[in-house]
Amino acid sequence: MVFVYDYHPGAETLLNKHFSTSELNGYADPFLSDPSAPRPYSHTKNTILRQQHNSMLPESVIWGYIIQLTAALRVIHAG
């Protein structure tokens, strides 16, 4: 599957959003996006949040992509 898209300044690709190089190396901390940010409340809480996240996309994000793709298909086939 190939996606062709226009350039939009400040936009983030799906590859960068969901498949960062740290995830490909086997470790990703989704709750520490800013290294200069203060440390979390506790190591235990951060571990619990990581286990709940479990490297899966939230259902709302998946549905958002499905809606956008079906809307694009509708536009393509309308003409």
UniProtKB/TrEMBL annotation:
Listed GO CC annotations: P-body; PAN complex
Record organism: Bracon brevicornis
Source species taxonomy: Eukaryota, Metazoa, Ecdysozoa, Arthropoda, Hexapoda
Xref: Gene3D superfamilies: Transferase(Phosphotransferase) domain 1 (1.10.510.10)
Domain of life: Eukaryota
Matching InterPro entries: PAN3
An example Gene Ontology molecular-function term: poly(A) binding
Protein name listed in UniProt: Protein kinase domain-containing protein
GO BP terms, alphabetized: nuclear-transcribed mRNA poly(A) tail shortening
